[in-house]
Design goal:
Elements lengths: L1 E6 H5 L3 E4 L14 H17 L7 E10 L9 E7 L1 H20 L6 H8 L10 H4 L3 E2 L2 H11 L4 H7 L19 H19 L3 H14 E7 L6 H9 L7 H11 L8 H9 L10 E4 L2 E4 H14 L8 H9 L4 H20 L5 H9 L8 H8 L5 H20 L7 H14 L4 H8 L13 H10 L9 H17 L15 E4 L19 H12 L6 H12 L6 E4 L1 H7 L4 H11 L16 H18 L3
Parallel strand pairs: 2-4, 2-5, 3-6
Antiparallel strand pairs: 1-6, 3-4, 7-8, 9-10
Helix pairs in contact: 2-9, 3-4, 3-8, 3-9, 6-8, 8-9, 10-11, 11-14, 13-14, 13-17, 15-16, 15-17, 16-18, 18-20, 21-27, 22-27, 23-24
């Protein structure tokens, strides 16, 4: 390779174009971070020139380019930007902004000087003048806005081309809108340049400003030669930084290492990778304490699904390279393309694949540790009915453990172990069930049997207790659907009940309107005293035993249902007769059907209802 220190004027002189390869990421520098810092550096150099101080060079870092072979006499010299597209593009925006500012101020002496570093001359001798006229040519997603902003002859042209981005008074909108980066950058640099020029003497200041950019800013320009490995250099410069995502490195690795004699990189990008540049894949997803773009989680989960091996998200790029050894670029992209379709339905809980319903059912449980196993099942060569049955088993495993108050802390290791063993054997439902049930004596991994599950249904504190609101609502919603299937109801399908409140039929604050079975009443203070007495192992009176029995029954599943928010607010802590009338008038849920037939509600009624719901749950979540 050849390495030289160049001024920005040397970088942009002559007929050449710095082209961002199609597989690189879009322009990402912003007004909030990089532009003001660069402008401050430029101003410092310009002000030194105005003060007759010889500025020291200001280095912007290294730029790595790979010259492309020119075919024929027409056209311009093309250099692919391996590293440095953000700086080169921004410098073009700076120069374009200065040109617009000088035109606005009617200072035209430097127009041709700026044109020499913004436009390639003699378009009639170019193969594709509409593209080759630019000194820098961005990647696909930036091209339209880049051309529109860079070809604006004056600030009014930008306003006319982007009317929605300006107020009626003609000022640049700052709130409630996302500007195309090219427009945003050029407009801001133009405003800054105009203000600085006016504050520093007008025409006299323009030369200092232009010279500050073109001669005082310098870069180390590295030109690759035949045989140089562009990807190794790119990794060395960027692989350890925080600015690039692992997926940027992976994308570049895929397309820099493609064997163009066997595979068409542009066609592969268009058919397989371009989909991952959409905003859908940039959504931040949180798992535990880690938040990463969705695409990183896809690649991480896909490698786990394919290999059954543990991985380190912090080393995702290295992980992917190790996984990809021996695979062609097409094979790697085919893998990501396949898993990507399944992953989206899993995450969003929408779609026609069995994995979509699985994802929807488990969203409240935040069990992303199941994703590699779920993806492997979803892409397996078995029928949809077999996949649905396997997903039902995993849901049963998780719901049963949650209701029984068993910890999910070991799920990451457990589900990876299940996946690893399942991959080695036959990919059948029977094999998966055997693996899920393979640790019957381990609290960290066992799949509760019916006896334990039913007992927890009737006695364990569920809400507030073993389940949070989202999980409890999901469980009650699925029970509602199951109860409807057992009846010849007018509406057998289960609706979306996510907007309903979880209601304690016998309320948590029961002291005023809900006497104990013997007719006596109590207070919150007495309830607290009974709890304390039980905690220290004291002897409880019959009255205190009744209080404690009620306190333990209230958060159990037998006492929980779903109600419209306003109905729940109106019912509050009122007696059962009042609550029953509200149910008759306002509910159509099967969960509440037996409540409307009762004359009273107490601990015995809660126990009976819990047994009924537990029987339904053992069928809904079979072991």
């Amino acid at each position: 390779m050849k390495s030289e220190t160049w001024t920005i004027q040397q970088v942009f002189q002559d007929r050449k174009q710095y082209k961002v390869p199609f597989y690189q990421r879009a322009y990402v520098w912003t007004l909030e971070k990089q532009w003001p810092l660069l402008w401050a550096d430029i101003k410092d150099k310009a002000e030194e020139r105005l003060a007759n101080i010889q500025p020291a060079p200001h280095f912007l870092g290294a730029i790595v380019v790979e010259p492309q072979e020119k075919v024929g006499l027409r056209g311009v010299d093309t250099l692919h930007i391996i590293d440095g597209q953000q700086r080169l593009t921004t410098l073009q925006y700076v120069l374009a902004g200065i040109r617009l500012a000088t035109r606005e101020l009617k200072i035209t002496d430097y127009d041709s000087y700026l044109a020499a570093v913004l436009d390639n001359p003699n378009p009639t001798t170019m193969a594709n003048a509409e593209v080759e006229v630019f000194k820098v040519w961005p990647t696909f997603s930036d091209q339209t806005a880049f051309v529109s902003a860079m070809t604006a002859e004056k600030l009014a042209t930008l306003q006319a081309r982007y009317p929605a981005h300006f107020t009626q008074a003609g000022t640049f909108r700052r709130i409630g809108i996302v500007h195309p980066p090219a427009l945003n950058a050029i407009w801001n640099f133009a405003e800054w340049a105009k203000a600085w020029i006016e504050a520093n003497g007008g025409a006299h200041a323009v030369e200092a400003l232009v010279m500050a950019v073109l001669t005082d800013l310098k870069v180390v320009l590295i030109q690759l030669e035949k045989g140089d490995d562009a990807q190794v250099i790119f990794e060395t410069l960027n692989g350890r930084g925080a600015e690039l995502h692992a997926t940027d490195l992976i994308r570049n690795h895929l397309f820099m290492t493609v064997d163009s004699s066997k595979e068409d990189p542009a066609a592969l990008y268009e058919a397989k990778w371009k989909q991952f540049e959409k905003d859908t894949w940039k959504v931040a997803e949180r798992r535990g304490r880690i938040t990463k773009p969705r695409l990183e989680w896809l690649i991480f989960s896909a490698i786990r699904a394919q290999t059954g091996q543990e991985g380190d998200l912090a080393r995702l790029y290295v992980d992917f390279k190790n996984f990809a050894q021996g695979l062609s670029t097409t094979e790697q992209l085919d893998m990501l393309d396949t898993y990507g379709k399944h992953y989206l339905q899993l995450i969003q809980g929408k779609g026609d694949l069995p994995v979509a319903r699985f994802g929807r059912r488990l969203q409240p449980f935040d069990t992303t540790t199941t994703h590699p196993l779920a993806l492997r099942i979803s892409t397996a060569d078995v029928s949809d009915s077999e996949k649905t049955a396997m997903f039902n088993d995993i849901v049963s495993y998780i719901v049963r453990r949650a209701v029984c108050g068993l910890t999910p802390k070991n799920y990451n290791n457990w589900f990876m172990s299940v996946l690893r063993q399942w991959i080695k054997g036959e990919p059948t439902r029977a094999a998966l069930k055997d693996l899920l049930a393979s640790s019957p004596n381990s609290p960290a991994a066992r799949w509760p049997e019916d006896d334990e599950f039913v007992h927890a249904f009737q006695t364990a504190p569920t809400y507030y207790g073993n389940l949070d609101a989202g999980r409890c609502r999901m469980l009650l919603t699925e029970l509602e659907g199951w109860l409807r299937l057992t009846k010849r109801t007018e509406e057998p399908s289960i609706p979306d009940l996510s907007n309903l409140d979880i209601d304690h039929i016998l309320p948590r604050s029961w002291y005023e309107h809900w006497p104990l079975p013997d007719g006596s009443k109590t207070t919150f203070a007495e309830s607290q005293a009974a709890e304390q007495q039980e905690l220290v192992g004291g002897v409880l009176s019959d009255h205190h035993q009744a209080i404690r029995r009620r306190a333990k029954a209230i958060p159990t599943l037998g006492n929980l249902t779903l109600l419209n928010l306003s109905v729940n607010r109106e019912a509050q802590n009122k007696d059962f007769a009042t609550k029953k009338q509200l149910l008759i008038a306002n509910t159509v849920l099967s969960l509440n059907g037996d409540l409307m037939a009762r004359e009273s509600w107490d601990e015995d009624a809660i126990s009976v209802r819990a047994k009924r719901l537990a029987d339904a749950a053992t069928q809904l979540y079979p072991r």
